[in-house]
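can u pls check wat happens w/ zinc ion
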Amino acid sequence: MKCPVCGGSASPTGKEFKFGVFDGKQHKCEACGKTFNAFYRDGKFTHTVPKAK
Ligand SMILES: [Zn+2]
């Protein structure tokens, strides 16, 4: 997974959740240390949302 903030390499944290029709998976970027959520619909990746602090 590519970090939406810096484009670095991010790994899943293991945190998963439901958001309406989407499945969300939290990722953490190894390069900048930010966390963000990646959303999937019907098993297909749709978009990422950087986590607001
Ligand atoms: Zn990053």
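DSSP finds no helices and four strands in the chain.
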